[in-house]
Amino acid sequence: MRRLNRKRALSLVKEMDAFPKVPESYVETSAFGGALSLTVFMAMAILTILEFFVYQDTWIKYEYEVDKDFSSKLRINIDITIAMDCQMVGADVLDRASTMVILTKLTFEPVHFELNPQQRLWQKAFLQFQSKLRKENSLQDVFFRDALKGTVLPQNVWSDVSSGPLNACRIHGHVDVNKVEGNLHFTLGKALHHSGGHIHLGAFFRSNVKNFSHRIDHLSFGEAVPGRINPLDATEKITSESNQLFQYFVTVVPTKLHISGLSLDTHQYSVTEQERVINHALGNQGWVSGIFVKYKLNPLMVRVSEEHMPLRTFLVRLCGIIGGLFSTSDLLHRLIGYFVDVLCCRFSLGGRLS
């Protein structure tokens, strides 16, 4: 009884089939139709594989919102080499709230200013990547996507193999400052804070010993992101003047990264620079030689996230590819067949009339 009910159900389903069926005896095969079918199936397979690669890939999404975090500290990551003795160089931060931070937590390390071949190769690689970033903005998506998966560039190797006296000071480390506009100074003499402001004890040094030639191997804000290329990384300035002033005007943009299931608070920045020789005889009173990084915070925050194509979107796109190829190939086959029939009929009629 159950088998009989199943047969009746199957026959009922077959009768409900709304798609037309053409008997095989009515189907006419041809070499062109077979070649077209083979081409369609090959194109379908290739497009399906390519669409699967697109489904596996991710893209970077940028969202903008107002930065409402005013209580947290701003971390400045510094790695700079100045062509002077460490005892002659002072570093401090003075912000808009008249708060002075003497950078005692930074490491002052005597080194050679000249780079060894491996370090020079590292610097050239960074400069090449930065030139590419200025032309191809989409490369930044690659660096964001790979930021938490591994480094994009090899790390700088600080093996000082040069001979001779140590003629430079490498200042590296990080410092936490207030999240307000401020000025990072690298000047002659150690900084000293007092009630009326701050001074640098550089009056006892001869002017001919000052040389603010420098190299910025790394300067970033917030948490350090592996593989991230910052605008001032690998910047090198060489001068023969003793009263040279270097100014970097930095605009810092708070950035929240949500990539590969991890979250990270960091900062991006843009920079413009200016340099000049201080000459008090020409009316440059009030100016001092040194390296000044003036930074200000952007009120907008950028939220960077990594997005993936949903499975339902992938299936819809896949159905569109398969259905579109079938429809297009059938229409193309009918049109070509129609024009071939028309041409053949004209030639045959012309032969009979002649």
Quick structural summary:
The chain is α+β, with helices and mostly antiparallel strands and 354 residues long. It has helices spanning 2-15, 31-56, 117-135, 139-145, 311-353; strands at residues 58-66, 73-82, 89-95, 100-102, 107-111, 168-178, 182-188, 191-194, 197-200, 214-222, 235-237, 244-259, 262-277, 290-297, 300-308. It folds into 2 domains: 31-67 and 306-336, no CATH class; 74-298, no CATH class.
Characterise this structure.
It is a single chain. This protein has about 350 residues and is of the alpha+beta class. The protein has two domains: about 30-65 and about 305-335, no CATH class; about 75-300, no CATH class. About 30% of the residues lie in helices and about 35% in strands. It has five helices and 15 strands. It has helices at about 1-15, 30-55, 115-135, 140-145, 310-354; strands at about 60-65, 75-80, 90-95, 100, 105-110, 170-180, 180-190, 190-195, 195-200, 215-220, 235, 245-260, 260-275, 290-295, 300-310. The strands form two sheets. Strands 1, 2, 3, 4, 5, 6, 7, 10, 11, 12, 13, 14 and 15 form a 13-stranded mixed beta sheet that branches. A two-stranded antiparallel sheet has the order 8-9. The protein starts with a helix and ends with a helix. About 20% of the residues are buried.
The helix-and-strand class reads alpha+beta
- H/E element string? HHEEEEEHHEEEEEEEEEEH
Please describe the biggest sheet, giving its number of strands, its sense, and whether it closes into a barrel. 13 strands, mixed
**How many separate domains?**
2
In which range does the helix fraction lie?
A: 25-40%
